Amino acid sequence: MEHSGMNVRNGPRTGPARERELLLLGLLRKREMHGYQLSEFMENHLGLFFDIKKATAYNLLGKMEKKGWVTSRKEQEGKRPPRKVFAITPEGEALFQELLRGALPEYRRPAFPGNVPMLFMDALPPEELHELLDLRREAIRERMVALETHLDHIAHPLFDHQLLVLSAEQKWVEDLLKGLGE
To answer: Is residue 132 within 8 Å of residue 23, measured between CB atoms?
Structure first.
């Protein structure tokens, strides 16, 4: 099985855009949904892991429909405006499988947006640095609590991965604070 990073027919196999396609196709594999349902599901169940805006999701669904990866049909409930209900096509399923197989074995360097300020911590007075690191530690703790709340509803390796990363981040911040003489 070939796992190069490129497929001539579909372009690069990985990257943020391809990951969003994989996400939407994967959700549509579970069941047909209209755009609002997709957005709500992502916000309520996956918002701790993925940041995909509603406008981005709708735009991507339109592009995927033009490429034949999803289809849509109009559905109307009562007097509400009609809405598009999306479903994955066989071509979309094939792309989903290709993207999944291309992305799973790949390791990409994680992005840590909070790392840049860490380069310049020495520019702050120790007391202020301590206060700011305490705030960071509390933000990490809050994120962990939010994840653990979700764990009651969904058991998935993705949650375990996020908790391990957050635990490591928390330990790192605590070690920094100890070094500052907490």
So the answer is: no
